[in-house]
Amino acid sequence: MKLAVAGKGGVGKTTLVALLAREAAVRSYRVLVVDGDPDSNLATTLGFPNPVAPLAEEDALVAERAGTGGFVRLNPTVDDIPDRYAVERDGIRLLVLGGIRGGGMGCACPANTLLKALIAHLMLQEDDVVIVDMEAGIEHLGRGTVRGVDALLLIVESDLRTLETAERTLRLAHEIGIERILAVANKVREPEELSEIERGLSSDVPIVGVIPYIDELRIAARRGPLPEELRLPAVGELFSRLEHDLAIARP
């Protein structure tokens, strides 16, 4: 299962990525989560005790694989990076990318080239459940990496601004060839909020999960790590739906 997860900042994307990763691990999948947001906090959310160095700041690695200065190798070797640089806790492996610029921003710097090649490798070659927590935009996926994505999971709330971000993300996803786009309604307090989300989303984007507003999650997000014992029935139902819809074989 290869998921790219997007949504406007503050929509609860990172929390949901962490909960999905835990759900996958409990079900005996091998799990690799990738923090692709420059404002990285997935390690904290998952309870890793120490800061995780972003790959973009591994200067020796970047220089070795992608070059330095004006010389950039366009196809750097990345297949060994997950085993060398991922950290693991409770059956979940984590890679933190650091800053990565979109394909349309004119950046061909070595770090950018390395990170984009790594994402492509993870989507196409890794056998694990791979969940990529992205920033609000999805530009850094690019046409060369979407072939291995089983689905783009779009996290939305009833707030108009999050729905506007979702609409922009949908347009870009279609432009770069992502075929399956699924939505998760998050922080839903009442049926009317779900109705607003349904009205605000394109009709061809099914809502595959509804996560209720839970005060415990809000408090946990303010404090940092999610409680170890926290598992939400709605997240379990979402994961089962993804298994079914994406035809993923159980381990």
What's the domain count?
1
The level 1 CATH classification is Alpha Beta
What strand order characterises the main sheet?
3-4-2-5-1-6-7-8
Number of strands: 8
Shape type: globular
Helix content: 25-40%
What sequence of helices (H) and strands (E) makes up the elements? EHEHHHEEHEEHEHEHH
* CATH overall fold name: Rossmann fold
The main pleated sheet reads as:
8 strands, mixed
The whole-number mean of residue pLDDT values reads 85
User: Proportion of β residues?
Assistant: 15-25%
CATH superfamily: P-loop containing nucleotide triphosphate hydrolases
**Stretches with pLDDT under 50, minimum 5 residues:** 101-106
CATH architectural grouping: 3-Layer(aba) Sandwich
What is the alpha-carbon Rg in Å? 18 Å
- Structural class of the secondary elements? alpha/beta
Q: How far apart are the termini?
A: 12 Å
